[in-house]
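Design review, sub-item: ligand-bound model
Attendees: FS, YL, KQ
YL presented the inputs for the cobalt (II) ion complex:
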Amino acid sequence: MSPVRESISKGSVSPVRAVPASIERPDYVGKRASARWHGGDVHSAETIEKIRISAKVAAQALAEVGRAVVPGVTTDELDRLGHEFLLDHRAYPSTLGYPGAAGRPPFPKAMCTSLNEVICHGIPDSTVVQEGDIVKVDITAFMNGVHGDNCGSFIAGEGTEATRQLVEVTHESMMRGIKAARPGREVNVIGRVIEKYAARFGYESVRDYTGHGVGPAFHTGLVIPHYDAAPYHDDVIEPGMVFTVEPMLCAGQQANHEWNDGWTVVTNDGSWVAQFEHTILITADGQEVLTTP
Ligand code: MF3
Ligand code: CO
Ligand code: CO
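KQ shared the predicted structure:
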């Protein structure tokens, strides 16, 4: 894809935004690492009802921020909108203070904003969104002890035909992956479906970042690959499980590296990337998307 703008570079990050003490924080905030989750991925009816609420608020926040993706807005301004929306709904922005890799700083903002060749984990900053950019917004809400996680890709202005196709195909790949998630199957079927569909268009699916179990922990330890990982990732899908499906598709190659900020992940070849993410619940005979506004 021919980029319509120069490559993305680091902007300046604004001071950390406050969260009132009355809003419950996840246990990892202020710690150097998140505690490992040992509670499994099949949840009680009571926990699932709580996840529904977090997922709904996360989806509403995503829609709100998505409407603000227009040429001229900074990613910091998008963060401000998402941060305030979550606080207004008595939710904590799960990414704010999420511990990084050893020796790296915690994530400093209420969402990830990843433009063009940035695959994921972009930090909102002074970067100005330009006509034709793909802006991935990944926002997660924590309420009542549980998280709901979702991401969407928004094009600033019209975008090129190639950009629109990348975004549409990525959304469709996520939906196909979700529909493949049924009790009795191994989680690796999800990635197989996603990768196969992406390949029809010459796109590569990112391997190094995956979907995950979500609920009482932001990342429970269950991994949902977006590529054909068989015979690995053979966890069997069961009713009552909650996890994300969040494919990142590249117009070029998926090989990637991280910036020295400890977070921002970019394609090595500079190819553009789209991503969508839903939090889903596995039901007796299929699945339900929880991140709907
Ligand atoms: N929301 C991302 C996911 O889908 C995780 C972001 S963690 C952060 O798993 F620290 F980078 F914000
Ligand atoms: Co996410
Ligand atoms: Co996620």
